[in-house]
Amino acid sequence: MGKLNKEQRLEKQLAKKVEKQDAYQQVKLQEIPEDDFNVANLIQTLEDQGQQIDSVKTQYLRVHEKARIVQEPETQAERDLQERKVAATVMKQDIKKWLPIVKKNRESERIDFTKQRNVQISKISDTSNALLNNHLGVKLQNAMEEVEKVEQKQELNGQSNQQKSNLQFYNDLKMKKISSIKSKIYKQIKKKKGNKEKLKLMAQLTPAERRKEIEKLRLSRAKERITLRHSTKNKYVSQLLRFGGDKKSLKQQQSFLNNLKHQLLAKAQLNELEDGEFDEENFREQAITQLEQELLDIERREKEKQNNFGFLDKQKKQDLQQSKSIAQKLLTMLKSGNDDAIQIDESENQEQNSDENYEPNENGDKDKSKNNVENNEFNGRANFVNETKQLTETQKKKIDAKTSLSNYLNQEPEKQQQQNKIEKQLTVQEEKKQLIEGLNIKNIKQKYEKQVNQKLTNQDLKKLQSDPDELLQQNLANFNLVLDEDENENAFIDEKIKDMEEELPPEPANTKGWGSWAGFGIKEKKPLTQEQILQNKIKKIREVQKKRQDAKLDNVIISEKRDVKFAKYLVPKLPSEFANSSQFDQLHTLPLGPEWNSLTSHSALTQPQIITKAGVVINPVKIPQQINKLV
Amino acid sequence: MAKDKILSAKLKQQEFKTKSTQLKTQKIAQLLEPQFQQSVEIDDERPLLKISNFKEYLPEENVQNIINLKLKQGPYKLSVTPQTTYLAGESGHIAAFNWRHKQLECEFDVKEKCYDIISIAQRNFAVAQKSSIYIYDPKGVEVHKIRECKQATKLEYLPYHFLLAALNQNGQLTYQDITQGKIISTYRTTPSSLCLKQNNNNAILGIGDQMGVVRMYAPNTGTSLTSMLCHKGGVMSMTFSRDGNHLITTGSEGTIKVWDLRTQKLQSQVAVNATNLALSDKGILAAGRGTDVVMWKNCLIGDLKTPYLRYKASSMICDIDFIKHEDYLAMSTFDSYEQTVVPESGEPFFDTYEQPELQNKKQRLETNVRQLVEKLPPESISLQSHRIGTIDRTSKMIIEKEQKRQIEEQASKKIKKQKKKMRGRNKIGKREKLKELERDQKQQVKWQEMLSDALRVKRAEKEKKKFETKLLDRLEQMSSKEFIRVVS
Fold first, then answer.
1. Fewest CB within a 10 Å sphere: which of A50, A451, B171, B241?
2. What is d(CA A268, CA A390) in angstroms, rounded to the nearest whole number?
């Protein structure tokens, strides 16, 4: 069946082609009408009559020659072009039938592809010539004429509607084209107009609302910069991800944080300085009013619109909720009058800030808190002061650093226990570990541990905070710093090992057959595996490490490259007079110049062995007598 | 003992002379000691003294020199000499004024971003601007434009070598000779540098890193001489002591550390979050943190627990420096220049031999000439500079190798005279053809070596495949045989 179908298809295609060819011929015939009038015939007739028309004949021949070139067969390309033109005209004729229908369908709600047909009334009028004599026929004709008139009016209206719709259609197309024009000036003008309108709107707003809108714009800008793939390596984004959205440099940011801390400390000191007789009731009233204000602030802050960064919003919410719960608790405590509960909650906060002494109190922090719990006296004043006091930057950093480091240190002893249990099977990775431990990282870590001995919790930080937004940014920056700190050591150790590897002599290339006996019955040596090569390398590095100057120093690399340019200031060989180099160096213990000595000692040091006064006659050298005799 | 008697006698004489000179110098030092050396006594109860508390007790000369200038154009950088201060704002405001007489020397706007300023020889000063480094007269006239080191952010000047060192944003360090205008050496250091400082005793530059490492550099070698891991965070700033034996650094993690450079070990440390450091000649350490400046008295001995003084500036501090041979501390902030008294900070004895700024015009000209004559060569900068004139302690093998290499280099530099050959062999075209042939042959040898290695690997792989296929065939035969056996 399939073959037959193919044949059928072919036939159809061929039929189509034939139809087209017929269409060409028809078109050609239409385009080129035959002319009966001919110039050649005219000249012949004139010659037969005997008139002299030589000049005309020559002109005709010339023209004829030129025209002959035109009549020559066309090239294939030209022929194809003409054929295509003809095909286009044929297709246009076909399409012309459908164009009005398509237009109608675009405008109308329903779709109809039926052709327009004349109404049957025209047929009646043709056939009704016999009926004209009758009354009925006259009436019918009149009625028909009226109907026709109405229809013509309707058609005219329809045509005018069509024209309007057509005009709208083309107008829309034109507007689309204009909107798609991408000229710079057009866009600039548009932008300026938009900006002016925006500014007018901004001028009408209040400053608080204006600030919000500016923040919105800033956030949208930041979001764009982060989301774009090519700009993720941009300086702005890298700094934002690292330091939390501040454009300042590291040094400026540090000083800015210090300044903030300084201001907060000043506030705390002011509170301290207001000494006087202590009234419980006044103090309670003050505390209650301040706490209520804080609660209002928190509510207001919660209503504020969120940032686009999800991770920032989550932390902000948590912080606000915690601070809110604490404030509510305190309010209930203060109103009811139960003082014991306050102390239990804030016993952890009892530690004094050690900013004034610039050294963390290593001991005694726990004891203070215990004592306060035991003595159930009212310490509301002290507690309230502590609330206003801010933690120092160093302490905040230490908290973050401590948590990460304590986790790390807790993991180490477990690992060691596991290692002791398992038999020592030296793999390559373990060898590397041992090599790094040989550089005494533990000592460095123990030193760092001592700094971080002060014990503070994260709750202290969150209770005493004033602005969660700023603190979040600070924490982000600190967190990144802590991450980098672990990298610093590892990077330095890698650098040191690389420096030692450069000192090793280059290994000979392993070529087969060289360096081994050849012959029948001798076993082939297996090439070393990568693990064995590494182990050999580690052994060599350890030997090199012992010889170096910085063998015992963990955090120092001293380069042992020889300074060739400086060598010209040194004496290459020991002079023959001296026995030792130390004896030679003794001459250089004392500087002789006037820059380092007083004038009297300088003159004494640079005094010549023989002093001759001016004017003394110096006799020429004489030959000694022993030599003179020989001569 | 020496071989010669004469030499042994000479040595004995010198020992005697050294001892005698030491005694003399001690006596002179005792005579020159100031009798009334004022200092501030510290109570244990209130360790942090503020300068405003004892301002009333100071003499008038000192009170006059307590300056507080309010400026507007951005954070400022400064460099101070015993007579003038140079200020450079970030937005391009540059000024120089005599703080002793309160006279303005020059003031102008560059309309360009300025990163650093430093005073150089003959009262000129260099400014690191965005486009390049400029050198100006004391009257503010542009003298030179150094185009070679672009985007320099930190400057340092070595006075005895007449070298201007500039550190780039990408970590490129350039040494430039000011007298000749010649670049002596350029090389790449760490890309994430935060601070640059020179060791006054040694003329070696130290660069603090964002990875917490301090590296020492000299113009001779491109690599670092020593590198020391100092901090967990980045090294914000550092100073060297006057002897060159101590190094003090601050880290971004919030510690100040004192290092002994002779043993390369940590001496003492404090938990203070500081951004700027300065050390006076007498050993008073000033640390700027935010708007505060905290000072310690005997920091090099290790007494860092109790601070000595405290000063509160109007805004955030950007740069700090002590004035030499005076008891003043100069600091530049975001919008001001301030100068305060720090008792017992300056060294009272100044060397008249090398102090051109307290001299007349004639004397100054003479000193300029003399300093140029006594200019130290840049090759003499090294960690072993105290060993100049002594015997080289490296092994003989290495020295001989170096000498051989030098001789070979000299020989290679000499142009060999080519022999003249007859019959048109010496044509230029033919000679160049021969040269091309030689080049091609050298390349061919290289390619052949490469090819042989590659071919060897390919052959080995082919053999391995053949061996495997043989094995597989045998296994198939064996399996088929076994299968037949089982069936049968």
1. A50
2. 8
Amino acid at A426: L
Tracing tokens 């490129």 back to the chain, one arrives at B172
Query: Which residues in chain A have their CB less than 8 angstroms from residue B3's CB?
Result: 577-579
Give A102: exposed, middle or buried? Use CB within 10 Å, 0-12, 13-18, 19+: exposed
**A-proximal residues of B, 306-335, CB under 8 Å:** 307, 316-318
B415 phi, psi to nearest 5 deg: -90, 125
Q: Which region, left, alpha or beta, applies to residue A613 given φ > 0 means left and ψ of -120 to 50 means alpha?
A: beta
What is the nearest CA distance from A234 to chain B, expressed in angstroms? 16
Instruction: Give me the residues of B, 118-157, that contact A with CB < 8 A.
Output: none
| Closest CB to A559 among B225, B272, B379 | B225
Q: Which of residues 423-462 of B touch A (CB under 8 A)?
A: none
Contact A485, B211 (CB under 8 A): no
pTM given for the model: 0.51
From edge to edge, which strands make up the β-sheet containing B193-198?
A: A556-558, B226-229, B213-217, B205-209, B193-198
CA distance B416 to chain A (A): 28
pLDDT tens digit sequence for B10-22: 888 888 888 888 8
Residue B201 DSSP code: T
Which range has the top average pLDDT, A244-253, A528-537, B234-243? B234-243
CA A560 to chain centre: 42
Confidence label for A480 from pLDDT (cuts 50, 70 and 90):
very low
The residue in chain A having the minimum alpha-carbon distance to the alpha carbon of residue B27 is A598
Tell me how many residue pairs between chain A and chain B have CB atoms under 8 A apart.
198
Interface mutation target, options A255, A440, A498, A560, chain B, most CBs of B under 10 Å: A255
CB contact (8 A) between residue B194 and residue A561: no
Residue A478 neighbours by CB under 8 Å, 6+ apart: A396, A397, A400, A401
Q: How far does chain A reach from its first CA to its final CA, in angstroms?
A: 141
Rounded to 5, what percent of chain A is helix, strand, coil? 70, 0, 30
The complex's ipTM?
0.75
Do B179 and B160 contact (CB within 8 A), yes or no?
Answer: no
Beta-carbon contacts of residue A331 (< 8 Å; ≥ 6 apart): A288, A291, A292, A295
Residue A548, exposed/middle/buried by CB under 10 A (0-12, 13-18, 19+)? middle
